[in-house]
Write a structure and sequence with these properties.
The structure is a homodimer. By secondary structure, chain A is mainly alpha-helical. The first copy, chain A, has a domain of about 70 residues: Arc Repressor Mutant, subunit A (Orthogonal Bundle), CATH 1.10.10. Chain A is built from six helices and three strands. Chains A and B meet through helix 1, helix 2, helix 3, strand 1 and helix 4 of A and helix 1, helix 2, helix 3, strand 1 and helix 4 of B. Chain A binds a DNA duplex through helix 5.
DNA sequence: TTGACAATTGAACAATTATTGAACTATAAT
DNA sequence: ATTATAGTTCAATAATTGTTCAATTGTCAA
C-alpha cells in the first residue's frame, strides 16, 4: 500500500497534456470544482485499501464479530503472517482497531462508514 | 486492472492456514455468512477500479459534465492516451459510458451509485 | 484523395504490492 | 527458567498495473 504516494509512474501535479481543449470554456469552468490533490490522494488511497479480496474478507468477517488474528487466519484459510500484514494495512487506514488481550490481539471494525460503503458497492456490483 | 483475476500470489480458494482456531465455534458460525468468492472478487475489483487517482479525477470531472477525451486530458494534464486507457477501465467497470459524436467521443457517468460511494468515502477520509 | 485531428491500441518499462518463510517479540503455562 | 503459543516484522519473489511512445483507426474538411 502506498497511503500517500503515487502509483507507478504517476505524478499528478506535473503531467503534460498532448492536445488542446475542444471546449476550453467548459474545462476552465470545471477546473476550480476539482478536488484538491490531497483529497484526491486520500480518496484513492482509501479505495486502494478496499480494493483487495483479502482485506474485503477481513472487513466482512469483522462486521460479524471481533476476532483474533489466528481465528481470522483459519476463517480465510491464510497464514497468520499474511493476515497480520493485511490487518496492519487496515489499521493504518483506520478501518479496524486492535486490542491486546493476553496472548491474543483482538481486531474489530473501527469505522461506521465501511458497512455503508460496502452495501452501496454491492448494489453496483449486482447491477 | 485485473477485473476478475487474483492479485499477486492470491489464490483465495486453496490457501492453507498455519494454525488452529482459538475459537472454532465462532469461526464456524461466521463461515457460512461470508460472501461467495464471486461476490468477493466483484467487490474488490470494483474498489480496485476506484483506487486510482486518475480514475477518481475522471469520475469527479464527469460528475460535473460529460466531456470528450481531449478535454479530460487537458483538465487532468495528461496525455490522451493515458486518459483513454483509464476511461476504458472505467467503461469496462460500467462506471462511465461513451458516445461517439463526430470526431469526438463523449464520456459520461453511467452509475448512480458512484456519487453516493464517493460521498461516503469522503466522509471517512475526512475523519 | 489528401491532410489533419480525435481517439484507441499494443508493447514495454518502472513501480507497487500480496504472499511466503524465517526470524523475532511478547505473553502465558508448566 | 523453559517451553509453547500468538502475533509481528523483514527480505525476497512473483505478479499486477499506470504511463509512455509509436502505430493505427476513424472522421471531418478542403
Amino acid at each position: 500500500m502506498c497511503y500517500f504516494g503515487q502509483k507507478a509512474g504517476v505524478n499528478m501535479e506535473n503531467k503534460k497534456s498532448d492536445c488542446e481543449a475542444i471546449n476550453l470554456d467548459l474545462v476552465e469552468r470545471i477546473r476550480p470544482n476539482m478536488p484538491e490533490m490531497n483529497t484526491l490522494y486520500e480518496l484513492s488511497d482509501f479505495f486502494k485499501v478496499m480494493g483487495d479480496g483479502t482485506r474485503i474478507q477481513l472487513l466482512w468477517a469483522l462486521e460479524e464479530s471481533e476476532m483474533c488474528v489466528g481465528d481470522l487466519a483459519v476463517l480465510l484459510n491464510m497464514t497468520k503472517s499474511a493476515v497480520s500484514h493485511q490487518l496492519k494495512v487496515l489499521r493504518t487506514a483506520k478501518l479496524v482497531k486492535a486490542q491486546k488481550k493476553g496472548k491474543n490481539v483482538i481486531y474489530a471494525l473501527d469505522d461506521y462508514h465501511v458497512k455503508n460503503i460496502l452495501e452501496k458497492a454491492l448494489e453496483h456490483v449486482r447491477e
